[in-house]
Amino acid sequence: MPWALTHDDTLPNGVALCPNLHRAFDRYLFWVDDDYRIQLTSDFEEHAGGAHGICQFADRQLQLPKNPAWWPRLENFRAQRATAF
Fold first, then answer.
1. Could you read off the pLDDT of 9-68 as tens digits, one per residue?
2. Is residue 27 part of a domain?
3. Is 48 part of any domain?
4. Which of the residues 10, 12, 52, 62 could staple to 36 if both were Cys, CB 3.0 to 4.6 A apart?
């Protein structure tokens, strides 16, 4: 959940993204499913993404911390999906 709304800066309320992926996530170009896999919107097209593109992450699982208590909360990803769809 956005820090600006919740002021929750705990590890389970976050996911580390580069600026490009952060913008794409906020624009609902991709989301994280309940298996922590990255899913792209069906109409997303990338013309010259290469090593810096988003499509390379499609259906890949997030790299999660060893301690499950530090994993991002699934309910936050679900809320993001509900807002998008």
1. 889 999 999 998 999 999 999 999 999 999 999 888 887 767 778 999 999 999 999 999
2. yes
3. no
4. 62
